[in-house]
Specification:
This protein has 77 residues and is mostly helical. Helix content is 58%, strand content 0%. α1 packs across α4. The two termini are 13 Å apart. 19% of the residues are buried.
Length: 77
């Protein structure tokens, strides 16, 4: 699964930049899980009314997540 990031929050990012962004939270797998957990927490929050705020707050992390998942997808097919 990748995030459906609104066009105004999409960033160009190399795999190395994405890896560096996500490994800030530990190893690469931990970084992916961290972003996934942030999304789940956002969706479970009764106060949220829009996903826009989530994407604006976590713009680098969600873009990095998508780059890593798309780059590594062939390994899991």
């Amino acid at each position: 699964m990748t995030f459906r990031i609104p066009a105004f929050c999409e960033l160009e990012m190399s795999f190395e930049e994405a890896k560096d962004t996500l490994t800030f939270h530990g190893d690469l797998l931990a970084g992916l899980k961290h972003v996934d957990d942030m999304w789940k927490s956002h969706c479970e929050c009764p106060e949220y009314t829009s996903d826009t705020e989530f994407y604006e707050n976590w713009i680098y992390e969600v873009n990095a997540y998508n780059v890593v998942v798309e780059t590594m997808k062939p390994l899991f097919v």
